[in-house]
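HOLO CASE FILE
Compound: NAI
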Amino acid sequence: MSIEKTVVAINGDGIGREIVEAARRVVDKAVVKDNIVICWAEHKAGGEAIDAYGKPLPQSTIDACKKAEAVLLGAVGGPKWDSVAPAIRPEKAILGLRKELGLFCNLRPVRIFKALQEYSPLKPELVQDVDFVIVRELTGGIYFGERSEASGEGPNEKAWDKETYHRYEIERIIDIAIDTAKKRKGKVTSVDKANVLASSRLWRTVAQEKATANSAVTFDYLYVDNTAMQLVVNPGQFDVIVTTNLFGDILSDEGAVVSGSLGLLPSASIGTGTALYEPIHGSAPDIAGKGIANPLGTILSAAMMCRYSLGASKAADAIEAAVEAALTAGYRTGDIYKDGMKRVNTEGMTEAVLQYI
Ligand SMILES: NC(=O)C1=CN([C@@H]2O[C@H](COP(=O)(O)OP(=O)(O)OC[C@H]3O[C@@H](n4cnc5c(N)ncnc54)[C@H](O)[C@@H]3O)[C@@H](O)[C@H]2O)C=CC1
Ligand SMILES: CC(C)CC(=O)C(=O)O
Ligand SMILES: [Mg+2]
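Model generated. Tokens follow.
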């Protein structure tokens, strides 16, 4: 008899439905290898929840996520909801879910597939060894600080957002970075802006204390502006990058360029509650509804879900190998297409992956 696992699927907006449906098909086929069957529970968040319920994160979605073994999410937001009140913007759904589920850590692996080395805008010799993980703090910092929308008039009109970090928030994310590094090449790069920001100075102090207490791991410390440059001049130097919510958000999109496309990168958000898996990109309104989005970032997020939340390691290995095989065989969505390759849409890439499982 198969073991049943409940996974909440949140399509969200834009390309969300297209990529989540692709990943669900792949997972359903792969988990058979682990004698597992997935019971998918669809719930709404983001713009689609605003349209249905008048708010981006209904309690029913939160409750379902808390009870499930994992959550697979597409992306939320889009121009349709750009003029809604700040308190109910679609992005509040993502932030709210992360907070409600206690997901203080976002793991964003950045690697370069052999078949895609020539797709990176960087020189081949710079990208051949690229394989690092961004460990992004996810429930603190400026995204969760107090803010004030614009008020006042004329040149004195002002708005502000506050960045706060507590010692315990920094300690627990650095601990995860250290554990991650111990399973990899043993190097942590802590990224901050300690030359200017008080919150970054506390970040660096805590990182240095952790470094002293963990001599098995090598630490270095970079300012975020230098890191942004190092990511494109020498990305092979990185093993584990640990940084704040805002800096991690920005640096991971830059990492995606190194790997060839934003559509390729997966993520896992972990912490105290049900883990959530989502690609690092957004809802891509410019290509939504056309069936051309690259589903691989979501499919690879689903592989992480199989490995870390569903106890389906054979499925995880099979999905990752199938993605590699599909790329090696030349299948390419538009974002990674080059002359001579097999151009496919979302459906075609999904079929290509399925055939190798
Ligand atoms: N986790 C989430 O739900 C996130 C939501 N957003 C929201 O998404 C909306 C659009 O934001 P943007 O800044 O345009 O960022 P985006 O990541 O949605 O798109 C940036 C560019 O990358 C392309 N792209 C993204 N994913 C792709 C894929 N799978 N295949 C092929 N091309 C892909 C898009 O077509 C676009 O040209 C906004 O409402 C934003 O707030 C943005 C980032 C994360
Ligand atoms: C709502 C945003 C913080 C989402 C985002 O850009 C991300 O998590 O990468
Ligand atoms: Mg982002």
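CASE NOTES: The longest helix spans residues 167-182. The CA atoms of residues 99 and 302 lie 21 Å apart.
CLOSED: yes
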